[in-house]
Amino acid sequence: MYHKTPSYRIFSIFNHLLLAFIAILCTLPLIHTLALSLSGKAPANANLVGLIPIDFTWDAYDKTLDNPDFLRSLYVAVIRTVAGTLFGMLVIFLAAYPLSKHGSAFRSRQAYAWFFIVTLLFNGGLIPTYMVVQKLHLMNSIWALILPVTVNIWLLVLMMSFFRHIPKELEESSLIDGAGHFRILFRIFLPISMPAVATLSLFTMVFHWNSWFDGLIYITQARNYPLSTFLQTILVQIDTSQLSTTGQDMQNISNTTVKAAQIFIGALPILAVYPFLQKYFVKGMVLGAIKE
Amino acid sequence: MGSRTNRNTIPAAGPLHGARFRRMFRYTWPLHVMLLPAVILVLLFQYLPMLGIVMAFQDFKPWTGFTGSEWVGLDHFRSIFERKDSTQVIWNTLIIASLKIVFIIVIPVAFALLLNEIRHAVYKRTVQTLVYLPHFLSWVILGGILADLLSPQSGLVNRVLHDWFGIRPVFFLGDGNWFRFTVVASHVWKEFGYGTIIYLAALAGINPSLYEAAEVDGASRLQQTLYVTLPSLVPIIVVCTTLELSNILNGGFDQIFNLYNPMVYAKGDIIDTFVYRVGILDQQMSFSAAIGVFKSVVSLVLITAVYRIAHKVANYRIF
Fold first, then answer.
1. Are the beta carbons of A236 and B144 closer than 8 angstroms?
2. b/e for A112-141, b at 16 or more Cβ within 10 A?
């Protein structure tokens, strides 16, 4: 009944406006960057561009996509994301199955579970991990970007909870029919859990695409940086160090539109998968966060 | 023969050995094989580095290695609290992290309450879509955008502040205090939307009959919110707060690293960025490993304590 009271109506109008304002405010920075990347050089340098491109041109994108360094790092990023996701999903999918078993069916389960939980509580830190990667001769290899981050405990827990919701009867009947665990996992669990696998793959893809720090420390040749690391070095390392100096670098200014284009291309894959991602992450996050 | 007698004598719930063990193993060995890749990777990249923390107690030099480096005991830990730069860094981390924790609880709760009042499903979903988005972009992208947006000379924010309100350029990323503000504000920008999800889920789970009863008793919407909605949210707020508390030594490496510069080291440098600079760039590996150990131990204590509280208050478990 409260919906009809005048005070609630006033609140409701105000509330709609406020939320719309906040939602738009959240995306304005991205829109500004897009507008900047599509603007001509002159208006961009004169700080005239707001939210709409001025002197519309694709120049900045042409220039970015002509840059061999950019293309090279884009290629590395794609390889890393695809390989990292495939490999990571395989390892997690395999490991989640035994962990989803009840302690009575798989006695060692609890020991394995603690083996993984400990890593959530304690880790060796940056320097020792760096030295392990070095000692394993993984430096400058794409595997340095994949192997250390493959076993993500949270994804493992999500996959495990999903497996637990699969009716026990399915597994029992196949066991009676003589199927082994591997056959059950790949012939029965895999088809059923495709939605979960798709969701976790999206998470892993976003993670790999966004990772930049491991590229910075494990890859020593700048030409083999994945895109995020490449962007980090050209956008952030130069820009913030010159922010507070009074006169801005001339070269920096002329690069405004190109930088904006690079940022936008870097964000594009995330924006592209975002609708699919959004469909699932709410479920996934709540699943991981609360259990009764 | 032996196995045969064993099978008859061992009770069903007894310890595993002999034939029972073998029978069990015939059923479970594929499960061990399935865990093998994950176990190897975790051993290599999680457990092996844990051994590396002995360097925190040594004067470690890469060319002499773990066996040849001089043993110095707790010297490095002592100097964490004696060196001016490291104590400053710990303070910075505490200040930035606690501000973040406060705002990332309060704002999502408030936002979820407001969003909950919207009945129009499409409107609601659109707002959600827009506010969740920044969570998925990396700090490299957001850092690049912010550097451009907040620049004192050419940034859109300072242009708006100047043209609309006549405010002189603000050095958001070049002045220590403003830097802290920017870090907290941009963290809220990136994460508050994502933070509302959990509260929205909790709101959806509140029993509607509570509201019906309140309505019958003549409670206004505000009273319903204060006396029905908020008390129902308290357990989940407590859980989120306690879990967030374990981040008290996490200033947010990705964010700070992509926003800071030497001008704001005094107020913006945090433990993790300091460890990186001192350990990898300056090669003071032992000292920075000691800070890493210090941080890990504090986090471990906090997480264990907080986890117990969360378990008691809301029966929250990970595994």
1. yes
2. bbebbeebeebbbbbbbbbbbbeebebeee
> For residue range A110-129, what is the model confidence (pLDDT) as tens digits?
999 999 988 887 777 788 88
Q: Where would I find the H helices in A194-255?
A: 194-210, 213-218, 227-231, 237-242, 250-254
Q: Which domains does chain A have, with CATH numbers?
A: 21-57 (no CATH), 63-289 (1.10.3720.10)
Within 8 A of B45 by CB-CB distance, chain A residues are: 129, 132-133, 147-148, 151
Q: Do A267 and B114 touch (CB under 8 A)?
A: no
CATH class of B75-142+191-314: mainly alpha
Are the C-beta atoms of B156 and B149 separated by less than 8 Å?
yes
- Tokens standing for A156? 């493992």
Residue B222 CA to residue B229 CA, distance in Å, equals 10
Mean pLDDT in residue range A9-36: 93
CB B222 within 8 A of CB B291: no
Q: Provide, as residue numbers in chain A, all residues whose Cβ is less than 8 Å from the Cβ of B257.
A: 213
pLDDT reported for residue B72: 83
How far is B278 from chain A, CA to nearest CA, in Å? Answer: 10
- Find the CB nearest B38 among A15, A95, A120: A95
Partner B, chain A 237-266, Cβ-Cβ below 8 Å: 239-241, 243-244, 248, 253, 256, 259-260, 262-263, 266
pLDDT for the residue A254: 52
Q: pLDDT tens digits for A171-210?
A: 888 888 888 899 999 998 998 888 888 888 988 999 999 9
Interface of A with B in 146-185 (CB under 8 A): 147-148, 150-151, 156-157, 180-182, 185
Contact B51 A124 (CB under 8 A): yes
Q: Does B261 touch chain A (CB under 8 A)?
A: yes
What's the N-to-C CA distance of chain A in angstroms? Answer: 33
Length of chain B: 319
HSE, CB side, 13 Å, CA atoms: give it for residue A280.
15
Domain spans in chain B, listed from the N-terminal domain onward: 2-61, 75-142+191-314
Reported ipTM? 0.85
pTM for the model stands at: 0.85
Q: Which of B249, B269, B62 is closest to A130 using CA atoms?
A: B62
